[in-house]
UniProtKB/TrEMBL annotation:
Pfam families found in the cross-reference section: CASP_dom (PF04535)
Protein's membrane topology: Multi-pass membrane protein
Superkingdom of source: Eukaryota
Cellular compartments per GO CC: plasma membrane
Transmembrane feature ranges: 51-70, 85-104, 165-186
Name by which UniProt lists this protein: CASP-like protein
Casparian strip membrane protein domain segment(s): 46-176
Stored InterPro entries: CASP_dom
Keywords tagged on the record: Cell membrane, Membrane, Transmembrane, Transmembrane helix
Length: 194
């Protein structure tokens, strides 16, 4: 009689070594589902961060405007007698309009998915607008600092304290818009549809 085991070949599952899956390396990490999910999370964080920075810039610009506009104490203690402070007030008004529009636009984009501009145009408007407004805020605040320091050397009262507070709010708005410009530059350079 012949050997029954010889008539049937050996089971391939028993003879071959077990196959183990190799995790993807760093270069291939973005190719799978986890890479896509990470990208979505990063894009969502960038969108929300941009909205938060513009919202903070709006608040700081509004505070700078309100503090400066109410800084009238009679005589030489009226902000509107000095062109540096009028310039700061005018730039604060422009920054309020810009950051308010941008914050609303980004809010509707996140909440309802409404896009006012095509993506490349939107990124370019964000990047250039953030840079221009940040520069104007820095310019206005820097122009008002020497006159405020001059006044504070002679007298330190509510007028000079209000000037310093308004300038400080303008500087904080500048920093928010500068960081927002960095995010806008990132979005523009990667051309991701955020």
């Amino acid at each position: 009689m012949s050997n029954p085991e010889a008539a049937f070949p050996e089971d391939p599952a028993k003879s071959s070594p077990p196959v183990t899956e190799v995790p993807p390396t760093d270069g291939a990490a973005g190719l799978g589902v986890s890479g896509i999910v990470r990208r979505w999370r990063r894009d969502d964080l960038v969108r929300r961060g941009s909205l938060a920075l513009r919202g903070l810039a709006l608040i700081f610009c509004l505070l700078s405007f309100l503090i400066m506009a109410t800084n009238r104490h009679g005589g030489w203690e009226n902000f509107d007698k000095y062109e540096e402070f009028r310039y700061l007030l005018a730039i604060a008004i422009l920054a309020i309009m810009y950051t308010g529009f941008q914050a609303l636009r980004h809010f509707f984009q996140i909440a309802a998915g409404i896009h006012m501009f095509q993506h490349p145009t939107s990124s370019l408007v964000d990047f250039s607008g953030d840079q221009v407004m940040a520069y104007l805020l820095m310019s206005a605040a820097s122009a008002a600092v020497p006159k405020t320091n001059f006044f504070r050397e002679g007298v330190d009262n509510l007028f000079t304290d209000s000037l310093a507070a308004s300038i400080s709010m303008a500087f904080l708005a500048f920093f928010c818009l500068a960081f927002s410009a960095l995010i806008s530059g990132y979005k523009l350079s990667t051309q991701s549809y955020i």
